[in-house]
Amino acid sequence: MRKVNRVVLVGTGAVGCSYAYSLINQGVAEELVLIDVNELKAEGEAMDLNHGIPLAPSPIKVWKGSYEDCGSADLVVLTAGLAQKPGETRLQLVEKNKNIFKQIVGSIMASGFDGIFLVATNPVDIITHVTWKVSGLPKERVIGSGTVLDTARLQYEIGSYFNVDPRNVNAYILGEHGDTEFPVWSHATIGVKRIDDYFEENSELKTEVFEQIHANVRDAAYHIIQRKGATYYAIGMALVRITKAILHNENCILPVSTLLEGEYGHHDVFIGVPAVVNRDGVREVIEINLNEAEKAQFDHSVAVLKAIMNPEKVEI
Length: 316
Prior knowledge:
Blueprint: E1 6-10, H1 14-26, E2 31-35, H2 39-50, E3 61-64, E4 75-78, H3 94-110, E5 116-119, H4 124-135, E6 142-144, H5 148-162, E7 169-170, E8 173-174, E9 182-183, E10 189-190, E11 193-194, H6 203-218, H7 220-228, H8 233-247, E12 252-261, E13 267-278, E14 281-285, H9 292-308
Parallel strand pairs: 1-2, 1-4, 2-3, 4-5, 5-6
Antiparallel strand pairs: 7-10, 8-9, 10-11, 12-13, 13-14
Helix pairs in contact: 1-8, 3-4, 5-6
């Protein structure tokens, strides 16, 4: 039989279901397996999604499965875990979700899984590190959603301010997916024009605009959670974008959470950086020249993550 692209989704909460819905509507995979501790919910979600397949752009098989289905999966997407509550930071979730993931990843690896992990559960950089340690897989095949969503938020905010299509904005958020993330303004462009050039030496306005856009992006999740309880549509679409880059072997540059081994002057930390993503996972990390302020922001972001990831707090 012809080999098909099988994706296993662990966690059918709001994020997981948004991902599944987007995956089907974009026709990215040929098989989708749903796993959840609440088996009835996973079964119900599979039934509901199946009823939309006649309207989807391409065929796909969807069913409620078990960890055994991971043995022949190309990609396992992890969205299970406890969600961020109003007023709670992503880093405060680490102790809650660490133990959950040790059990989940152990069960997946027991199936003989030898594909790629894509992690979305917060705090995503730390949980991705835990997933890598527990799984024993090569670092290239354990990927966190990183700052792909934050970058999309940045592109949206810049596009809104300048009244241009955000898909023509080339700008990245780097660092932790959380409060210490930062925009790389020194490399931001709209089309082929540097964003700095739009301010015609008006440094005060530029500083004001940059600070406001950064705050809007950094605090977006807090504002959304305050209003509707959770964020899930955009992260679902961000996960599909990464999935497409993997399954379609795109060699696409995305700011995912991956392990640094000397890049940007740091080691042994998963953090959001531009990386080439293809069928093998992360092909390589793209190092860009940061200015002094951006280097300091990156170093601070790493320091915050490492403070949480020290052996006394995270035991693998």
